Input
Amino acid sequence: MNKGSLDTKKKGLIGLGALVVLAGATILGSDPLYKAIDDMARPAIYTAGTYTASARGYGGPVTVTVKVSTKAIESIDVVGEKETLLDQVVPSLPDAIIGKQTLDMDAVSGATLSSNAIIKAVEKALAEARGEAVEEETTKAEESAATGWNDGTYSYEAPEFDDNGYKDLVNMTIKDGKITALSWDCVDKDGKLKSQLSMDGQYVMTEDGPKWYEQADAVVKYVLENQSLDGLINEEGYTDTVSSVSINLYGFVNGVKDCLKQAAGEGKTQAGWNDGSYSYEAPEFDSNGYKDQVSMTLKGGRITALTWDCVDKDGKLKSNLSMNGEYVMTEDGPKW
Output
């Protein structure tokens, strides 16, 4: 055998040996070997270090601390003091991001906002690690103001009773372009509220789950905190976003949408009146020591309620003083 053939044979045996070692390592599930090969193939895209970023979750801000090498995400720590659903997401979601080295992840069912907050925060941290400009989140208040919601109080009542004999009632207050108050209830044909029936044990869905009024409060809280209905319900009207809620939310969502349409001026009449409740107080006391106060409710483009009163510097209403004989104009004419 000549020298050239011997060298070729040696090289072949060495290559075969390497393949055997690699195959054996693969069969044994050698994670360190896999990571080593993956690390050699992966380009350097980060400045190694630790980066912190935050995003909004369901109950409040979620903050992540992300440690990276030049090529990979090494660790992700998550903190959210007001985020009650984090225990459903951590550590499974951060571990999955590290394991797959990608943010292309599905949200954890029942904790969509918490999941998305973690993904968004990690995305911001990684952008900083890549030396890219971090996109600032638009606040919900800014988004609300951008929609052109008019300040005021708006109400919705379902046009008819549902199959269970209830009508949905939604009331909303908007101030400075933001939803500041929101309530949801249902009323039966006898005028009884579902929330009260639920509290009194006269409306029972399950023996061990959250009561109706508790679930209603949870979805109201969701809208107030997020200033949006986005991601709340699926096509069937149920939610995977608020884990404690199992009731159908179509009536609630319809009511909120109707109130927001009113606030956006979509319920205008030819006179340009928006449905809602409005109030006025004179900027100063008059020469007799009173301020005028006027309250008005518009529905369907019509004035449906109107009051006028005056208040003195002690907070006493002129109407009450007049009824009690403490404010007298004439002895024989109509009272104030």
User: Anything to note?
Assistant: The chain has a mean pLDDT of 81. The beta strands are 49-56, 61-68, 73-79, 152-157, 166-175, 178-188, 276-281, 290-299, 302-312.
